[in-house]
Write a structure and sequence with these properties.
The complex is a heterodimer. Helices cover 66% and strands 5% of the residues of chain A. The longest helix of chain A has 44 residues. Chain A has 13 helices and three strands. In chain A, helix 3 packs across helix 8 and helix 11 runs antiparallel to helix 12. In chain A, a hairpin with a 3-residue loop joins strand 2 and strand 3. By secondary structure, chain A is mostly helical. Chain A starts with a helix and ends with a helix. Chain A has two domains: 46 residues; 231 residues, no CATH class. By secondary structure, chain B is an all-alpha fold. Chain B has one domain. The longest helix of chain B is centred in the middle third of the chain and has 34 residues. Classes of the chains: A mainly alpha, B mainly alpha. Chains A and B meet through helix 1 of A and helix 4 and helix 5 of B.
Chain lengths: 280, 161
């Protein structure tokens, strides 16, 4: 009788434990399901940058770039000086050659402007302000900023930003000769608004790797950021290569800590930088 | 393992039903006060449990179930608060994973509120209502026969003659 009672108790006990375990598994499954549901919802509500950028083809992007280029030519005076142009060409040629593959035919232009800025518009068109070149102490620092801008183009951040602001329909409208007012607004948005932190970090990472491949010390990116920080220069608050503190410090730190491959030897540019700066 | 017989609704006093229901409803008020610090409702549930658990097994069961089921929701919401504060202070990215977690926490809390309301309604009518996992644990804790509960224990109160 006692044995039977023990067996019964054991059975009950085991049943209790197994059903408790089952409950736990069900609860965890519900929790996992809720999290997966949340993740799916987030994914659906905010498509990833890459997914957004895929909706605009490279051809469409190039057309958009051509439209914006014309507006920029009308809006900003550009620097036409042999010394500055040839210096920029030497810098950008080195960077472009270091790119493994690219969908863009890059075009770099110096804009005569008192602000310290550089920006990228669709289609691989990159603009650097003359004041930025004056502030940079070496051509390597300008190369670092331009490498960062190339990063934004290659990672299609510009197109993503456009897609976040405008619908695909609006972009097609712009391409098919829509309201010039809209075009101006879009351009202002591209130049004025900063990228997200993750995009900035991605462009930084791209720039550091590109600089190394191009035989330019990646530390130049940190040096340029530090100079802007230390001198407390009156740069445009929308300067997209910079972000608010303390995030900027983190980026400087990342650039400083970037490890180049063994045997890396920087190849200096053959540029008379003082002469270039005087010509700006 | 032996258990005490479950009381039927007509055997439970109105006061017991109200106290049992209160274990769930009290937390709604506590949540409102506690937001955005979800620890308040857990503290309230612990106090409510220790104040009421000895009143009857029915109340013990519901108070314990309310308390235990409160723990995961509190932890989940605390996780959300800590993550949000960390992002805010440390200027970290508000990642997709964070928002997925926020939705998860919101849904989990909503689900918890729904089952708590059902449990409160059932308790008010003198009925048992078992949550997944916590229902079984609470039932075992409240109704399991312990050596002290065995018949034959010397009664403390005795008639005068």
């Amino acid at each position: 009788m006692s044995l039977e009672r023990n067996l019964l108790i054991n059975l009950l006990f085991k049943n209790m434990r197994s059903s408790t375990l089952r409950d736990l598994i069900i609860l965890l499954a519900i929790g996992g399901g809720l999290f997966a549901g949340g993740y799916f919802l987030v994914k659906e509500l905010g498509k990833s940058d890459l997914e957004l950028s895929y909706e605009v083809s490279y051809e469409q992007e190039e057309k958009l770039g051509d439209l914006f280029k014309d507006m920029i030519w009308d809006e900003f005076p550009t620097v036409k000086d042999n010394a500055a142009d040839s210096a920029l060409k030497q810098i950008t040629d080195r960077l472009i050659q270091a790119l493994d593959t690219t969908h863009y035919r890059y075009e770099f232009t110096i804009i005569k402007n008192e602000q310290i800025n550089a920006f990228t518009i669709p289609g691989g068109n990159i603009y650097v302000f003359s004041e930025l070149m004056k502030v940079a102490e070496t051509p390597e620092e300008v190369a670092a900023v331009l490498a960062h801008e190339i990063g934004h183009a290659e990672k299609r951040h510009v197109v993503t930003k456009l897609m976040q602001e405008l619908s695909m329909t609006a972009i097609i409208g712009v391409l098919s000769g829509g309201d010039p007012g809209v075009l101006t607004e879009v351009l202002k948005n591209i130049i004025g608004n900063s990228f997200s932190r993750s995009q900035e970090e991605e462009a930084d990472k791209f720039a550091l790797e590109l600089l190394e491949k191009a035989g330019i010390s990646p530390k130049n990116l940190a040096r340029f950021f530090e100079r802007l920080n230390e001198k407390d220069l009156d740069y445009d608050e929308n300067l997209e290569i910079l972000m608010t503190h303390p995030h900027n410090d983190k980026r400087i730190d990342q650039a400083r800590r970037y490890k180049v491959k063994n045997g890396f030897e920087p190849k200096p540019f053959n540029i008379d930088w003082e002469k270039v700066q005087e010509s700006l | 393992m032996e258990f005490h017989p479950l009381p039927q609704p007509h055997e439970i006093t109105e006061r017991e039903k109200e106290d049992a229901m209160g274990a769930y409803l009290m937390m709604f008020a506590a949540v409102a006060i506690g937001l955005p610090l979800p620890i308040i409702n857990l503290i309230a549930a612990i106090i409510y449990y220790f104040v009421n658990r000895k009143k009857s097994r029915f109340i013990h069961f519901h108070c314990l179930q309310a308390l235990l089921s409160n723990i995961p929701t509190t932890l989940i919401n605390w996780g959300l608060v800590i993550w949000a504060v960390r992002n805010f202070i440390g200027h970290h990215e508000w990642t997709e994973t964070f928002w997925a977690y926020a939705i998860f926490a919101g849904l989990a809390t909503f689900l918890y509120f729904i089952v708590s309301l059902i449990a409160a309604y059932k308790a008010r009518h003198g009925k048992m209502y078992y949550f997944l996992l916590f229902g079984k644990i609470s039932y075992e804790a409240a109704y399991r026969v312990r050596p002290n509960d065995e018949p034959g224990t010397e009664p403390v109160n005795k008639p005068p003659f």
